[in-house]
Write a structure and sequence with these properties.
By secondary structure, this protein is α+β, with helices and mostly antiparallel strands. The chain is built from 11 helices and 6 strands. Strands 1-2-3-4-5-6 form a 6-stranded antiparallel sheet.
C-alpha cells in the first residue's frame, strides 16, 4: 500500500516536471544565471503539487479509516522488503526531478541539492506523518530510512562525481498471483503496476563509460543489478492461509542485465533531453540473467 502511494507521487511530480518544462525548445533550455521568474514558478508549482497530492492521498487512502494518536509500526518484514526498495526509488527520483527543475531556473548547485534533492525525503516524510496518525497503518522507521537512503544516493553522487553514474530504475511484468487477490494485488494492469510486488523489479543501473572514461564503451551502455520477489499473496501471512490448495512459496530474485542510459543520448534538443530525463526512471528490456533462491539460475532473452 505504501509503495502504491510512493509510485503515485512519482507520477504526480513527473507530470508536474513535464508541465513546468513544456513549450518551445528555448523555454526548455536551463538558464545560465538565476532566473527569478522561473525559480518562483518552480517553488509555486512544487508547493501546489505537494499540497494537492497530500490532499489527494488523504482522500484516497486515509479518509475511510479512523484516525489515532501518532504511532510507529514495524513493517520491515513485509513483502520481502520490496516496499522499502520502492521508497528508496521514489525518494531518489522525486529529489532528482526537484533538483533538475531548480537547475532549469538557474539556481546554484548547492541550492539544487538542498532544496531540490531534499524534496523527495521531505515529501515522503510528510506522508509518513499521515500514516502515523492513521489507525490502519502507522509511521514506519524502515520507510524513513529508505527515504533518506534514496536522497543520499542522489546527493552523494552529485557531491562525489557531479553526475549520476548509478540510477535506480523500475520495471514490471504481470504475474499469475494478482488473480488470487485482486483487491490487494490489483484487478487491472494499471493497478497491478502499483500493487503487485511479484511483478515489480527494482534496479541499480550503472553507466559503464562514467567509470571507465578512457574506454571505448558506448556512452549509453549500462550494467544493471536488479532485485525482485515472487509468490507473495500478502505482506507477512503464509499463502496457505488464503489458498491452501495452491503451493506458492515466497522467494527472492536477483538479476544481472544490460540497460540504456537515455540521458547519455546526444541531442541539442532540450525537449528530448527533458523527455529522456523523465523516462530514465524505467529500465529498458534487455537480455537478463536471473538467480532465484528456490530455482537457481535461468536466462531471459528479454526481461522487463
Amino acid at each position: 500500500m505504501k509503495l502504491k502511494k510512493s509510485l503515485f507521487l512519482i507520477f504526480v511530480f513527473t507530470i508536474s516536471n513535464c508541465i513546468a518544462q513544456s513549450g518551445i525548445n528555448s523555454f526548455l533550455k536551463p538558464s545560465d544565471t538565476l532566473n527569478f521568474k522561473r525559480k518562483n514558478a518552480v517553488f509555486i508549482a512544487e508547493s501546489v503539487v505537494s499540497v494537492s497530492a497530500l490532499i489527494g492521498l488523504h482522500q484516497l487512502w486515509y479518509a475511510d479509516y479512523p484516525q489515532s494518536k501518532f504511532h510507529f509500526t514495524n513493517d520491515n518484514k513485509e513483502w520481502l522488503q520490496m516496499d522499502k526498495i520502492g521508497h528508496l526509488y521514489s525518494s531518489y527520483h522525486l529529489g532528482r526531478l526537484g533538483s533538475e527543475m531548480l537547475q532549469w531556473s538557474g539556481v546554484s548547485r548547492k541550492q539544487q541539492l538542498v532544496y531540490g534533492a531534499g524534496l523527495g525525503f521531505a515529501f515522503l516524510t510528510a506522508v509518513e506523518v499521515l500514516d502515523g496518525f492513521s489507525s490502519e497503518w502507522g509511521a514506519s522507521s524502515g520507510d524513513i530510512i529508505a527515504n533518506a537512503s534514496g536522497t543520499a544516493l542522489y546527493v552523494s553522487q552529485q557531491l562525489l562525481w557531479k553526475e549520476q553514474r548509478i540510477t535506480p530504475k523500475f520495471s514490471f511484468h504481470t504475474t499469475r498471483f494478482a488473480k488470487y487477490r485482486p483487491k490487494v494485488l490489483g484487478s487491472s494492469f494499471s493497478e497491478q503496476v502499483l500493487k503487485d510486488y511479484n511483478g515489480q523489479t527494482y534496479w541499480l543501473s550503472a553507466n559503464l563509460k562514467s567509470f571507465f572514461k578512457d574506454s571505448k564503451i558506448p556512452k549509453i551502455l549500462n550494467l544493471a543489478v536488479g532485485y525482485g520477489a515472487d509468490g507473495m499473496l500478502s505482506g507477512t501471512a503464509e499463502n496457505s492461509s488464503f489458498f491452501p490448495e495452491q503451493n506458492f512459496s515466497k522467494s527472492r530474485q536477483f538479476y544481472l542485465s544490460f540497460d540504456i542510459d537515455l540521458t547519455k543520448i546526444e541531442t541539442k534538443s532540450h525537449f528530448w533531453k527533458t523527455f529522456f530525463s523523465v523516462f530514465s526512471v524505467v529500465k529498458i528490456p534487455a537480455p537478463t540473467l536471473e538467480y532465484t533462491v528456490n530455482e537457481g539460475f535461468r536466462a531471459h532473452v528479454l526481461y522487463f
